[in-house]
Amino acid sequence: MQDGISTSSMKRASIGITHNFLAPRTPQHNGVVKRKNIRIVEATRTVLNAFGLPLTFWAEAVSAACYTQSRSLVVKRLEKTPYQLLHNKGPNIKFFHVIQDKFNEELKTRAENLPNTTITQDLEKLFNEWDEDEDDPDRTSADATRTSAK
C-alpha cells in the first residue's frame, strides 16, 4: 500500500475502472433518469400527435423515440451521440426517412384511383333528400319534439 492507495485500486485505475462514490437509485441519479424519461415521453407524444395515431401504437412510438435519440447528438460536451460512445463509430443513418412522404404518396395514388365524384354533388343530394323529408323548413327541433310528444 502506497500513501493510503491499495494495489487493487491502482490495478483497477490502470485498466480504466474508476470507483463511483454515488450509490445507485439516489436523488442524484434519479434526476438524470427522470429527464431522459421525460424526453422520451415527449418525443413519443409528438410522434403520436403528428401522425394522428391512437394510443395502441404507444410501444412502437416509444421504441422509435429511443432508437432515434440514441443516434442523435445528446452528449453536447463530447460532441458525440450515445451510439458513438458505445461503439466508437458513427451510426448508419442512411435509412432514416420522413414517414409522412410515404403516406402522402400513397394517399395521392389512392385519390387518383377514386371515381370522379365531387363532394358538393353528394352534399346537394343529401340535403335535397333531407329537405323532402321535412314538412316545414322553418320548424326547429324543439318544435318537432313538442309535436311528437302530443
Automatic annotation (TrEMBL):
<dbReference type="GO" id="GO:0004519">
    <property type="term" value="F:endonuclease activity"/>
</dbReference>
<dbReference type="InterPro" id="IPR039537">
    <property type="entry name" value="Retrotran_Ty1/copia-like"/>
</dbReference>
<dbReference type="GO" id="GO:0003676">
    <property type="term" value="F:nucleic acid binding"/>
</dbReference>
<dbReference type="GO" id="GO:0003964">
    <property type="term" value="F:RNA-directed DNA polymerase activity"/>
</dbReference>
<dbReference type="GO" id="GO:0046872">
    <property type="term" value="F:metal ion binding"/>
</dbReference>
<keyword id="KW-0255">Endonuclease</keyword>
<protein>
    <recommendedName>
        <fullName>Integrase catalytic domain-containing protein</fullName>
    </recommendedName>
</protein>
<dbReference type="InterPro" id="IPR012337">
    <property type="entry name" value="RNaseH-like_sf"/>
</dbReference>
<feature type="region of interest" description="Disordered">
    <location>
        <begin position="125"/>
        <end position="150"/>
    </location>
</feature>
<dbReference type="GO" id="GO:0016787">
    <property type="term" value="F:hydrolase activity"/>
</dbReference>
<keyword id="KW-0808">Transferase</keyword>
<keyword id="KW-0540">Nuclease</keyword>
<keyword id="KW-0460">Magnesium</keyword>
<keyword id="KW-0479">Metal-binding</keyword>
<dbReference type="GO" id="GO:0003887">
    <property type="term" value="F:DNA-directed DNA polymerase activity"/>
</dbReference>
<keyword id="KW-0378">Hydrolase</keyword>
<keyword id="KW-0233">DNA recombination</keyword>
<keyword id="KW-0548">Nucleotidyltransferase</keyword>
<dbReference type="InterPro" id="IPR036397">
    <property type="entry name" value="RNaseH_sf"/>
</dbReference>
<dbReference type="GO" id="GO:0006310">
    <property type="term" value="P:DNA recombination"/>
</dbReference>
<keyword id="KW-0695">RNA-directed DNA polymerase</keyword>
<keyword id="KW-0239">DNA-directed DNA polymerase</keyword>
<keyword id="KW-0229">DNA integration</keyword>
<dbReference type="GO" id="GO:0015074">
    <property type="term" value="P:DNA integration"/>
</dbReference>
